[in-house]
């Protein structure tokens, strides 16, 4: 069961002070989010689970460094991105479209269009791919993406703009709209 924002903040503060149970509860609340994000990078269930495991361990080892408890989710996302990218780069030659499964359903988009979209996202430069995944698959704000990637908000906006333009060029369709 997901906690309210106040409960989550309280759990984060307790976890920062070393409370293992509080950290475990937080991870339980965010496990689906972490898995979906990891899967978008590595495209295989077992690898996504490994990435999430690495993220959880690294997060626990460094929770004491979290300065602003209200940014726990984006802080944890930053760790996840690093773990996923490490795994993705190790597996880059092994990645193939047939291992990619749709993780979300989008009304009005055919399965073929989804595959084309996922393939096009794979073609994006790393930073562009990351901002697209965080913005459109995880619904993070520009501010949260900037924090997670440790870059200025202006860079996030520029990456989003360039990534959308590249996707339109790859897809020759306009079904990704600026928001």
Name its key features.
single chain, 179 residues, mainly alpha, Rna Polymerase Sigma Factor, Chain: A, 2 domains, 8 helices, disordered C terminus
Please describe what this structure looks like:
By secondary structure, this protein is mainly α. The protein folds into 2 domains: 1-98, Rna Polymerase Sigma Factor, Chain: A; 102-179, Arc Repressor Mutant, subunit A, CATH 1.10.10. It is built from 8 helices and no strands. It starts with a helix and ends in an 8-residue tail after the last helix. The model is unreliable at 93-105 and 174-179 (pLDDT under 50).
Q: What would the CATH topology of the largest domain be?
A: Rna Polymerase Sigma Factor, Chain: A
Class computed from helices, strands and strand pairing:
mainly alpha
Number of helix segments?
Answer: 8
Radius of gyration: 17 Å
Uncertain parts: 93-105, 174-179
Q: What amount of the residues lies in strands? A: under 5%
* Tally of individual domains: 2
CATH-assigned homologous superfamily of the largest domain: RNA polymerase sigma factor, region 2, helix turn helix motif
CATH class of the largest domain equals Mainly Alpha
CATH second-level architecture of the largest domain? Orthogonal Bundle
Give the rounded overall mean pLDDT.
83
Helix content: 55-70%
Distance between the termini: 30 Å
- Element-by-element helix/strand order: HHHHHHHH
Number of strands: 0
Global shape = globular
Q: What is the makeup of the main sheet?
A: none
């Amino acid at each position: 069961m997901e906690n309210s924002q106040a409960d989550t903040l309280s759990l984060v503060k307790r976890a920062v002070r070393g409370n293992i149970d509080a950290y475990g509860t937080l991870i339980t609340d965010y496990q689906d989010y972490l898995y979906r994000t990891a899967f978008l990078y590595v495209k295989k269930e077992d690898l996504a689970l490994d990435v999430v495991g690495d993220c959880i361990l690294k997060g626990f080892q460094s929770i004491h460094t979290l300065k602003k408890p209200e940014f726990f989710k984006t802080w944890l996302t930053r760790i996840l991105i690093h773990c996923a990218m490490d795994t993705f780069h190790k597996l880059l030659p092994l990645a193939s479209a047939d291992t990619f499964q749709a993780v979300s359903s989008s009304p009005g988009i055919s399965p073929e269009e989804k595959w084309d979209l996922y393939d096009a996202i794979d073609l994006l430069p790393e930073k562009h791919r990351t901002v697209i995944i965080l913005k459109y698959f995880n619904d993070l704000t520009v501010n949260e993406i900037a924090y997670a990637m440790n870059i200025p908000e202006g860079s996030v906006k520029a990456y989003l703009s360039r990534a959308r333009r590249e996707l339109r060029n790859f897809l020759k369709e306009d079904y990704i709209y600026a928001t």
